[in-house]
Amino acid sequence: MFGVGCPSVREVTGDLWDFDCTMRAICTNGFLKTNGYAVMGAGTARQAAQRYPNLPEVLGKCIAARKGPHVVAIRHDIVAFPTKRDWRDPADLALIRQSAQELLELAERMGWKLIALPRPGCGLGQLRWGDVKPILEEVWGDDPRFVIVDNS
Question: In terms of pTM, does the model score above 0.90?
């Protein structure tokens, strides 16, 4: 528990896909297949690609255009939140910090009211939530637009 006045990211238990929000952030990586499509083979990225089969192509074009992994809206209701540069690597805390800052800036520019995301880098990314949460709190504080939806 954090002390009074300390910023804390809001967390809820549930399914990311059932949560009522403006945008869903899915954890992604910056790896491109030889066909130019993004690798979206696991976690929330895979779930999104199964729901919307054109997402690997859309995200792949964004990664190529931006020359690497960056936060980008890939649908009107889904934003890519990079946690890894390569899908085979563990998640990267520095990239998560960059993604959190980019998401904050994009949310402000786009006027998004509520952004839901899983615990970034804490599933297949192999990071501990105790290491990731302080980074998000530093970037977002207690901004009510950001909600971590944890299904455990």
Answer: yes
